[in-house]
Amino acid sequence: MAGPGAPAARWKSHIVRQLRQRDRAQKALFLELVPAYNRLLEKAELLARFSDKLQPEPNDVTPTPHQGPGDEESPSNADQVPSPDILRVKWQEEKEGLRLVCGEMAYQVVEKTAALGALETELEERQSRLAALEARAAQLREERARQAGQVDARRARNAAQRAAYEALRRQAGRREAALRALEEEARDLLERLVQRKARAAAERNLRNERRERAKQALVSQELKKAAKRTVSISENPDTSGNGTREKAEVTLPLPAEPEFLESEAGEKRPFSFKKRRGHSIGGVFEQQYQGLPVCVAARLPTWAQDVLDAHLSEVNAVCFSSNGSLLATGGADHLIHLWNVVGGRLKANQTLGGAGSSITSVDFDPSGSQLLAATYSQAAQLWKVGEAQSKETLTGHTDKVTAAKFKLTRHQAVTGSRDRTVKEWDLCRACCSRTINVLSYCNDVVCGDHVIISGHNDQKIRFWDSRGPRCTQVIPVQGRVTSLSLSHDQLHLLSCSRDNTLKVIDLRFSNIRQVFRADGFKCGSDWTKAVFSPDQSFALAGSWDGALYIWDVDTGKLESSLRGPHCAAVNAVAWCCSGDQVVSVDQARKVVLWH
């Protein structure tokens, strides 16, 4: 940059340039007037000299008669000097002409002077404007210098930030590479863990099979020994007095295969000896849950008692505990919320995390002490009520787990998945005890005493005996099965399918007893859940438009339809075991308590 004296030198040179320009402009206005005025002065001086020469001496003046206008000069006087009168007249004429010219010149001088004054005024105005513009230009130059300094500072700051950004980008790249390596390692560890669990489960299953075979062999040996043993039966007391009794020998035949006994509920159990006395052999005892509360009469809901935006995303599942004191909701925000129903309002109890993906179904065990959830992370999570951390993770599926339900026997559960398998789980050891391969996606499962029922994407409902390896029955329906609900007495099954119908299946005769339809009812998704009322008198389901539909199971007629808080498709409904309250959840994050 130039020194501090440079702006002053430029300003002075600019003033000099402006003065020279003004001189040139003013001089141009008088370039024609000055020569004319000089010529006029020269002529006036010339005429003055002529007049002085022509002025006659007093003694030399000889009057001569004037010639008339019609007189003509004689040829002899043609070469003579004109007379003074003639010259005086001419001089007077020229003088008048010069006076007129001088007047005109003076008028022009006045006009030019006035024009010059106006130009000088305009020049002064322009000079003042020029001074203001110069001052403004100086301010702008100072502002430009300041802005240039700011630009340089910002460029320096941008360069520093760019360097910091590059350093952060390189660091992020390194961390991303480390994260990918850790993810690969975690994936490898997870695969190895799954493989180890699978091997451990296979080993346990093999040991169980060997133990069962050993038990069966032991039972066979005992049966053979029992068949060969002679049993003494006293027919009549001895009346002869010799103290002896008659004895009859009875030989028990050995059965070729284990027999089955049929109970009153229609279930078949393997034949076994009960432990009475001595060393008789008993079968494996399965721990059953205690009897669940039975609802005598359910009340139809009529109005929305409480409405909450419970989750951050759509809510997929809802379930009451067996005693109705606790409510669980699961959503696509990877969270499960537990609620208490207090005074007709939902009061938050606890939030369970750690699912890692969207929740597709939730279920309480019959005792209400454990909660099982199916997730999109190819696993099912098990929580103990009252604890925030997951108790067990049931891994083994290769696709989304769509359903997870407890069995009626303790420490056992069943899951269904989109990987076309249904798995039975031993919750004590957190291992898969049985895998059932199916030809279609499984959307929902329910469990009876000794039966597993699964609903599938190929429009079929399949029945599996938990004691046998094969499917015992298949019932086709006219649409993809979205949900299953088993009645409390295990005699009726409610199915919901994508043909927008609900069907009640009588399990005693394996036929469809009722088909429920309604104008406006439509399944909103492949996981729309429908349920029986606790007294098995009504069927409840939610529609795509946010309405709830209730049908009478006996007559098949639509009892009522509820509309109100829901503005999106209802995904699931739950009916409290007391029969007084209903909860519905939808795709717009709402949880509604109906009374």
Automatic annotation (TrEMBL):
Q: What is its main location?
A: cytoplasm
Against InterPro entries, the record matches this protein to: ATG16, Autophagy-rel_prot_16_dom, WD40/YVTN_repeat-like_dom_sf, WD40_PAC1, WD40_repeat_CS, WD40_repeat_dom_sf, WD40_rpt
- An annotated GO BP: autophagosome assembly
Mark out the compositionally biased spans (Polar residues): 231-243
Q: Where are the WD repeats?
A: 308-349, 352-393, 394-427, 532-561
State whether keyword Coiled coil applies. yes
Q: Where is this region: Disordered?
A: 51-84, 228-247
The record's subcellular location field reads: Cytoplasm, Cytosol
Q: Which residues form the Autophagy-related protein domain?
A: 14-205
Output this protein's name: Protein Atg16l2
Organism per entry: Pipistrellus kuhlii
